[in-house]
What we know:
Number of domains: 1
Number of helices: 1
Helix content: 10-25%
Largest sheet: 5 strands, mixed
InterPro entries: Cupredoxin, EfeO_Cupredoxin
Protein name: Cupredoxin domain-containing protein
Number of strands: 9
Pfam families: Cupredoxin_1
Domain EfeO-type cupredoxin-like: 12-112
Signal peptide: 1-26
Amino acid sequence: xTLIQKAxxxxxxxxLMTAFAPxxxxxxxxxxxxxxxxxxxxxxxxxPAGTPIVFKVKNLDGSPVEFESEPLEFETVIKPNMEGVIxxxxxxxxxxxxxxxxxxxxxxxxxxx
Length: 113
C-alpha cells in the first residue's frame, strides 16, 4: 500500500468515526425533573437498562435541594431557581431511589427496565 493509499484509508476511518460520534452521545437517556414545593415532579420515571443516564434537575423552590441517591452513587446541591445536571453510569434493571437530603420527605424512584 502506498503512502497516499494509507492516508486515504486513514482519512476514511477518521471520517467514519466523526460520522458516528453523535450516535455515542445519543445513547444517553436524559431525564428531566423539577422540584416544586419540596416535591419531585415526576416522582417516578423510567430509563432503559444499559445506557448512561443524565438527570436534568430544575429547582423551582426558594431553598436549595440536595439531590442524592446512594444506589446510583451521586449527591449534589442545586441552588434555588437553578438547574443541575447529573450523569450516572448505565444501570441494570431495577428500582433505584433518590431523595432530597434537605427535605427528607421528598423521594422519588428511577425504574430501569
